[in-house]
Amino acid sequence: MKCLEPGVLDCSDYYFSTPSGIAKKLFFYGICCGEFSCKVPYHVNRDSYNSYLLIQILDGSLTIKLPGEKRYETAEQGDLIWINCYQHHEYYTKRDVRFRFIHFDGNTSGDFYREILHSCGTILRPADIGPYDEAFRRLVFHYRKEKILTESEISLLLHTLLGLPFQMSGSTADSGQDRQMIQQILDYIKEHYREDLDVKTLAGTVNLSIFYFSRMFKKETGYSPYEYLMHYRLDRAKRLLKNTAMTIREVGFTTGFKSESNFVSCFHKNEGMSPGKFRKLPF
Description:
The chain has eleven helices and nine strands. It has helices at 21-26, 109-120, 130-143, 151-168, 172-192, 199-204, 210-221, 225-243, 248-254, 260-271, 275-280; strands at residues 13-16, 28-38, 43-46, 52-65, 72-76, 80-84, 89-92, 97-106, 123-124. This is AraC family transcriptional regulator. Residues 183-281 form the HTH araC/xylS-type domain.
């Protein structure tokens, strides 16, 4: 379908899609998808449109108002833009631009958007655009009816696009070095999880500040250092509960908890049951 908005060139196309009831209940789903070539005075200034929006800049640039600010930032070729269209949003071009876009919603779209905004910002500049480009092209081909996808396949592609920022932020070299450091920490935790560890001790093993270490650890693992340590201890405790005759108290102290009550409380908070009940569960 051609777009008649000011500044949108005739070679542009976009398509609407109404998701099924099952898709609305279970999946990520597309609402509107297309590829635009635009020139001045292309300008979108909307109060709201019930969706989240992902834009991939193919050529040129697009300027966007940052959420909650009066400041604007410009995305260039190879960049991606994440927009919460449930809130007021604005973007426009100062020169020719070509971009793909998809309005989407469903499942945990809002949670993904908030995490991406917190971790990466509104504009993402990936070191490798290839995985994004492949998923985006397949979605556009579907809406153009060039290659039909099922709603579950569309959901998987959208999930890929939403998950990639957490895998690919930062430069490849830096990411490799960070991952090496984090693996060193994970090995250290494996050997010393029974001891009285804290974030300062863990950061010190790789000579990093607590702040930088915590941020890097979260980026690479998805957990804070404290969360990872507690979950590691719980995983070890589960093995002991199922495979030994140790008492609950012994299991707690053996896996690094300071007291039986602390162990039982942490176990119940994470598993929704007591260690004793877990021990009796058949597997």
